[in-house]
Amino acid sequence: MEFESGGKTFVIRSLKRKEVKALKNEGFNLYNISADQLDDLIDRIFEIVLTEEEIGAAEDLDNRDAVKIFNQIFRETFGSEKQEKN
After folding, report:
1. CA gap 31, 52 in Å, rounded
2. Quick one: CA dihedral 56, 57, 60, 62, positive or negative?
3. d(Cα 57, Cα 30) in Å, to the nearest integer?
4. What is the pLDDT of residues 20-58, one digit of tens each?
């Protein structure tokens, strides 16, 4: 799926089950993200989902725009509350 943030377009997707498990093995709890791990988790998920070029573009964005990309990947992976209710 294409997602626009900060005037740039990124091709994003949900994390695969094996990627979620790998992140857990790396010490990330995706169901209870600590503030201390958030920046590292964003970087790690970008490494998994985005291309090198997209990572570079994301690094040049305002932090809030980079977080929007992370949030969209997270929604794609786990769904939103609204989707779960349907």
Report:
1. 27
2. negative
3. 24
4. 999 999 999 999 999 999 999 999 999 999 999 999 999
